[in-house]
Design goal:
heterodimer, A: 315 residues, 14 helices, globular, B: mainly alpha
């Protein structure tokens, strides 16, 4: 276990370094450099030079990278010139909101998707299986924003059942105090997530259902219910844990569309505004931070996996 | 996860005399030896959803690329007199805010959506496959490092990178292809690398080395053609994903810039008038995106079954 953990930690450190290099280099893809991106195409060469000198953009790339990384390691994401506030202040205000929404949305998606996936695998090729597969296909064939907009159009504009906007409270308590407003964004999240998880769960259960241990369990006289929940379900859940870790970037990425549709001031919305303002620094900070969260999530998922499944530790 | 039980395959293109197997369609007399392609096609054709998907894809390609020659509408000059006109016999699905006929607009926009979707999937899968095959073939520390890069790219929320790139590089159909491909390649790379790990120890790959062939030959001529099933299936899903990504970019305002358009941009544009109940600006574009993405997913699923069965029946 220790050996596995050390290997996994080393991998994580390497991946984190590569991520920072990639995101840093993204800045330098701009024709004319990031200074042009900040000052705009009308800036004179003199302005570009002055600005570069002032903010250290005239130094060699590796020096800039080193400084940037050093600041990053101290939690300093820089100062956002467009919104006139430290980047970290902007992010820390938005991050909890995104986590709350993504957590609830994914949670609901899992709660619907996993039991449905199991049912599908157990009653394979039944009407239920076909219907859920069909809805699932719609789920991952639909752009997230379109699902959200349809829900707004139907349930908010036409039927007036739910509000069209997500809760706008700044604190987590305030957000949770307005559950009705959370319904549509969570439903959007859950619809997309359910499609994915029911499909994964279906194939995972189908992989497990033919394994020898299932036959053993049956032959020793375990009830069908015990075989399903005590053996197949628990083993199928293991692969779901890893997939959940791998899906983190998609979950966080999907937040952009949902937050924009529902005007929910989380990280995704912040990122969208930064994109509209060509605020490269803020975009990069959000990207790096969400990536670090993803890497951490993957690490936790893998550790969880190793704890659940002894086979992983010894390979 | 259970490994696929498949027999040790012979070289590429070799026909193995087949043991009498269960006919794909009952009652049909089976020829002694048939091409692997035929057998794959039979499995594919059994899947009604996949056939429907294939039919829809062919329809939508004709609709977008041949359609404008039959249903001729002005799509360059603005017709303000037609501002948001309702569907009528003259304009089957009405007009948008610039007076463009929506059916014609769907064709022109679809051309971009499909072109970007198909090309991005192609570029991503080509690069990803070569990357994965090289990484898996070389192995060792190079492989470990190359795969950490894949891990890194996979853990960055790709939609964010796509948006950053779309903001930094002025979007056009061409750059959007590269932008989407630049974030999509790690998926195929990882899958092909896994395939390569099992292929590189096969006799026919070792035989290349013995015969004095270079590594590049072994990878390009022997490893990759044998991983083609995985690659094609992945490419099919990639088309669906790329079309959805492009639609998302269009919604956020980073799609194909005007006067050209794509389905996502059309949708985003139509949403401004949602209070006027202009359903024809939203539902047709939205449904076309969904139907196209779902069709490619159907095809991908059936292709995977076809390739797996092909392997199993060998």
């Amino acid at each position: 276990m220790t050996g596995y953990l050390i290997r996994r930690l080393l991998q994580t450190i390497v991946v984190t370094l590569i991520v920072t290099i990639i995101t840093f280099l993204l800045l330098h893809l701009v024709p004319g450099g990031e200074v042009r991106a900040i000052l705009g195409i009308r800036a004179t060469p003199l302005e570009v030079r002055t600005y570069s000198k002032e903010w250290g953009f005239d130094q060699p790339l590796y020096v800039q990278y080193g400084k940037w990384l050093w600041q990053l390691m101290h939690g300093n994401f820089g100062f956002d010139l467009k919104q006139n506030a430290p980047v970290s202040t902007l992010i820390w205000a938005a991050l909890p909101r995104t986590i709350v929404l993504a957590f609830i949305g994914t949670g609901v998606g899992l709660l619907i998707g996993i039991p449905l996936g199991i049912l599908q695998a157990v009653r394979r090729y039944s009407v239920l299986d076909h219907v859920v597969t069909g809805i699932g296909f719609l789920g991952y064939g639909s752009p997230t924003f379109f699902v959200g907009l349809l829900l707004v159009q139907w349930f908010a504009v036409n039927l007036h059942i739910f509000p069209a906007f997500a809760p706008s409270a700044t604190s987590i308590g305030g957000i949770l105090a307005d559950p009705v407003a959370l319904v549509l964004p969570v439903a959007t999240y859950a619809f997309v997530a359910f499609a994915l998880w029911s499909r994964y769960m279906r194939s995972s259960v189908m992989d497990n259902i033919v394994q020898d241990y299932v036959r053993t369990a049956r032959s020793k006289g375990a009830s069908e219910r015990r075989v399903l929940w005590g053996h197949i379900f628990r083993n199928s859940l293991i692969s779901i844990v890893t997939l959940l870790g791998l899906q983190l970037p998609v979950i966080i990425g999907g937040a952009i569309f949902i937050e924009v549709v529902f005007n929910y001031p989380g990280m995704g919305f912040l990122f969208y505004q930064a994109a509209l303002n060509t605020d490269v620094q803020l975009m990069l900070a959000i990207t790096v931070l969400t990536t670090l969260i993803t890497i951490l999530g993957n690490l936790l998922a893998d550790i969880g996996y190793a704890m659940l499944d002894p086979r992983v530790r010894y390979t | 996860m259970a490994m696929m039980p498949h027999a040790d395959p012979a070289g590429p293109g070799t026909l193995i005399p087949e043991a009498p197997s269960v006919p794909a369609t009952p009652g049909q007399v089976q020829a002694k030896s048939r091409s692997l392609f035929r057998r794959g096609w039979e499995v594919f054709a059994e899947n009604k959803l996949a056939l429907a998907g294939l039919g829809f894809v062919i329809f939508i390609l004709l609709f977008c690329f041949a359609g404008p020659h039959i249903y001729v509408t002005p799509q360059v000059t603005v017709q303000t007199q037609n501002y948001l006109c309702h569907p009528s016999s003259a304009h089957l699905l009405g007009c948008d805010d610039l007076g463009y006929d929506v059916v014609g607009r769907l064709m022109v926009g679809g051309q971009n959506s499909l072109k970007v979707g198909l090309a991005a999937a192609f570029v991503a899968c080509l690069f990803g496959s070569i990357y994965g095959a090289v990484s898996g073939f070389i192995g060792g520390i190079v492989d470990a490092f190359m795969m950490r890069i894949v891990d890194a790219v996979l853990s960055i929320p790709f939609i964010m990178v796509v948006i950053i790139l779309a903001v930094l590089i002025h979007p056009s159909a061409g750059t959007l292809i590269l932008v989407i491909a630049a974030t999509y390649w790690p998926g195929p790379a990882r899958l092909v690398r896994g395939e390569t790990l099992s292929l590189r120890t096969r006799e026919y790959v070792s035989a290349v080395k013995v015969a004095g062939g270079r590594n590049s030959r072994a990878v390009l001529r022997h490893v990759m053609p044998n991983a083609i099933g995985t690659i094609i299936v992945q490419a099919t899903f990639a088309v669906a994903d790329s079309i959805l990504i492009l639609a998302g970019l269009g919604f956020l305002g980073f799609g194909v810039p005007p006067p050209a358009t794509d389905w996502g941009s059309m949708l985003s544009n139509g949403l401004q008038y949602v209070n006027l109940n202009t359903w024809w600006l939203i539902y047709p574009a939205g449904l076309l995106i969904i139907a196209t993405a779902v069709s490619f997913n159907f095809i991908g699923d059936a292709l995977r079954d076809a390739f797996e069965t092909r392997l199993q029946r060998r």
